[in-house]
Structure formats: structure tokens, C-alpha cells
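FYI - complex with fe (iii) ion, inputs then prediction.
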Amino acid sequence: MASEAQSQTTKYDPNFTRSVVNSMGPKVPPRLRKVLDSLIQHLHDFARENEITVDEWMAAVELLNECGRMSDDKRNEGQLLCDVLGLESLVDEITYKMVTEANDLPTATAILGPFWRKDAPKRQMGDSIVMNKIEDGDHTFMYGQVTDYTTGEPIEGAELDVWHTAPNGLYEQQDPDQPDMNLRGRFTTGKDGKFWFYCLRPTSYPIPFDGPAGRMIQLMDRHPYRPAHIHFIIKAPGYKPLVTQIFDRRDKYVTNDSVFAVKDSLIVDFLPRNGDPKAEFELPYDFKLASFEQAKKSGVSGTTAPSASL
Ligand code: BEZ
Ligand code: FE
């Protein structure tokens, strides 16, 4: 007996999808042809299997159009919609997964998210990225080392670009009350690969949910919260840029991230810090990078940072 999906797919013109795929001309480059072929096939199968009606399709088109209308240089609603559907985390895994026989692995990647800003201020080791006086923040001393994951050697000249939200759950570009570039900074390692700076222990926060991505979350009967995290991009000459986040183990959303970005190896412990008037907590964490060569050998498909502008 034919399954329900089979009977739904066979009752429609069996040649239609092929005719759309075959409409592509000879100048389409091979990768684009392969991806479009597959996209058309999956989209058509999806519509047939679910018997999508004109009204349902139009509602989806309107959702996408609304994403466009809501997006500007401070908000990327299309990316947010992908995030709540797990797509950014999936393409991050596809792009950076390393298949390696070495005992060790480079630090795991995690999604960039929509709140990174180019040209964060360059700061001296030991500086704080907290630019306003925040009484309610848990000041934290973060420190560690950037090393080559295969040799364990320290990496000199590695730049750590770091950013996180204020205790009110907002990034500075979302919040007119924070100074420009608050809670952001770039630090460059010396010969020993070591870094140290002050930041805040981050808090969990809801992703913006007043638009289509928020409506999708509601339709799926989910919450919009991300577990407390700090973002990093680490770049060093000859090494594959690392885009990642570290997550506070104590956060109640660490097992339930609204954008599916948490990996076990990125969960960290904030420890009490004694004798430092500038911080109540300390956070040790080391980053291990893969050289371009190692990344290529291990089958990583993306050997550049996720955005051409990084
Ligand atoms: C973020 O971590 O900044 C983020 C990631 C995905 C969606 C919204 C925010
Ligand atoms: Fe974030």
C-alpha cells in the first residue's frame, strides 16, 4: 500500500520539478547548479508532501518580506529567523567540523549571531571592556592562552575580539543608555600566547522577539532565551579564524538554548576571585587554533571566517 506521502507526491505532475531544474542555462557555475537543483527539489517535495496551499505559501512569503523590512545595520531579522530554526548552528557545524585522528581538537566553534560589530576598540592586556559604571554587574577577570592545537605551542599575535551583553540583556547597539562599543574589545597576545582582561559575568537574555523570528518561536511554543555567554573571534596569522562562544554552566538555559548553539566543550565555570578589588569572579579558558593547513587536511570546508569582512 502506498504511504500517504507517496500518494500525495504521485498525484501531481511528475515532470514539473525536473522541468524547473532543467530551465537553468549552460552558464550556471557547477556549485550553484548543484545547490539550486537540490533546493528546487526539496522545496517542491516539501510543498507536495504537506499539500501547501496558496494562502499558506503567501503567509510564508509575507513572513520573509517582513524580515527584510525589519532589518537594518542594527538588526538582522533574516538571520534571527534562521537562528530559531537551528540553521545557523547547523551550517556552523557543516562548515567547521574537523575530522581528525589527532588526540586533541581545536576549540569548538559556535555561531557568530547578529550582534558582532566590526572595529571594536583595541585594548591593552589587563584592561576592562566595561566602559560604564555598572554596579549590578558581576565583574570577572578572564585569562588564558591561545595555542596551536597540534603542537601545543603558544600563538603570538593572536587577536581576541570579545563581546557580550550588559546585565539588562542588551548589546550596546540595542541600548541607547550604553556607551558606544561598551562590553567589546580586541586584545592581542604576546610571545607566550597569554591573554587577560576584565569583563562581566554575562546574563541570559531573550533574543529580539518582537518580529517574525519571535512569532515563529511563539508558534513553536518555545521561549526566546539564550544561556549567558561571551562571544569571541580569534584570529592569528596562518590560522583559521575561530568564531565561538563560551557558556556559563550555572545558567538555567544552558541545556535549552533558543538558537541551539551550546556545545559541551564550551561550557565554563566562573570561580570566586579573592583579593582583587576589581573582580568577584575569575574565568580561566584556553583557546586552541588550527592552522589553515591542518584545517584543510582535516576536511574543514570553510577555511575563512564566516563573513568576508571578518
Ligand atoms: C547572540 O548570541 O548574540 C545571538 C545569536 C543568535 C540570535 C540572536 C542573538
Ligand atoms: Fe550573544
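The chain has two domains: 2-52, 77-309. Residues 30-50 form the longest helix (21 residues).
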